[in-house]
Amino acid sequence: MTASSTSSASDARYAVIGNPIAHSKSPNIHAAFAAGLGQQIHYDRRLCPLGDFAADLERFRNEGGVGANVTVPFKRDAFAIAREASLRAQQAGAANFLAWRGDHWYCDNTDGAGLVRDIEGNLGFSLKGKRVLLLGAGGAARGVIGPLLLREPTAIVVVNRTQANADAIVAPYLATHPVSALPASDLLAQGQRFDCVINATSASLAGALPLPDGAAVFAPGALAYDMMYGKVPTIFMAWAAQHGAARIADGLGMLVEQAAESYVQWRGVQPVTAPIIARMRAELAAS
Ligand code: ATR
């Protein structure tokens, strides 16, 4: 095999690159996609030394790598290295997807599409005409705000612990879209309610809530969505259940859907995701 192999070759090499990487479920997800489609792919985990992304990507390329998913902490490096970037990667300033295009890397950010597919496709919750509260203003929030806006909600309000970060992620959209960034105290004082509340903070990792405990933000029928997931509901999900959310979801579906969005771009075929999400859910519960 030569380094110029295309993604249609059965020996095309893919990988997820990050640090740490041992926990990544991406190889299992892509193996399941391939099995479901009767395809064969090589998809590995690559532990990349910190500060070594460019060199490691070149090594991967020399080994025949044609596509990579990129995770923490290298998403910005992936965007910087790619000579061609999708609009949504440009909006995010970060990429979780790389594809070799003959003589350069193309990058994309499939996180937002994965989130939208999970919310609208899997959960059957249309975002059009809805009021959305986006909690957080880090890389995760930045990656999804553009694709969320494409679904034509009537408003997206961003609330974040550090107001300056919230201001920064809405700034590119302020003139053209119904977005705003508000301190949580203003939001609560105004009594604003939302049809969809998305937690894109990492607060759950610290056992913290992204809003004051007593906050009343859920409109009737509202969906609470945590981009994180785990064996048990996150603290945000438990809080949402007690504070008026009608439906509650975690980010497992988003994880699988963002992977599917990668797969279809590399391989040209759309994997079936529902049975894989169900199986991963069952495995989580049994773990
Ligand atoms: P990611 O790429 O996962 O978004 P990040 O860029 O570090 O990670 O951003 C983490 C987000 O979670 C930020 O919005 C952060 O708020 P700040 O901008 O104020 O740092 C938010 N966050 C992290 N821990 C939090 C906590 N304990 N309570 C509230 N928000 C928290």
What are the key terms here?
alpha/beta, disordered N terminus, 287 residues, 11 helices, globular, binds 2'-monophosphoadenosine-5'-diphosphate, 6-stranded mixed β-sheet, 12 strands, Rossmann fold
What are the SSEs and their pairings?
Elements: E1 13-18, H1 26-37, E2 42-47, H2 53-62, E3 65-70, H3 75-81, E4 84-85, H4 87-92, E5 97-100, E6 105-108, H5 111-122, E7 131-135, H6 139-150, E8 155-159, H7 163-170, E9 179-181, H8 184-189, E10 194-199, E11 218-226, H9 235-242, E12 247-249, H10 252-267, H11 274-286
Parallel strand pairs: 1-2, 1-3, 4-6, 7-8, 7-10, 8-9, 10-11, 11-12
Antiparallel strand pairs: 3-5, 5-6
Helix pairs in contact: 1-10, 5-6, 5-10
The structure holds 2'-monophosphoadenosine-5'-diphosphate (ATR).
Q: How would you describe what is shown here?
A:
It is a single chain. With 287 residues, this protein is an alpha/beta fold. The protein folds into two domains: 107 residues, Leucine Dehydrogenase, chain A, domain 1 (Rossmann fold); 141 residues, 3-Layer(aba) Sandwich (Rossmann fold), CATH 3.40.50.720. It is built from eleven helices and twelve strands. The strands form two sheets. A six-stranded mixed beta sheet has the order 2-1-3-5-6-4, with helices on both faces. Helix 7 links the parallel strand 8 and strand 9. It is globular, with a radius of gyration of 19 Å. The N terminus is likely disordered. 2'-monophosphoadenosine-5'-diphosphate (ATR) binds next to helix 6. 2'-monophosphoadenosine-5'-diphosphate binds next to helix 6.
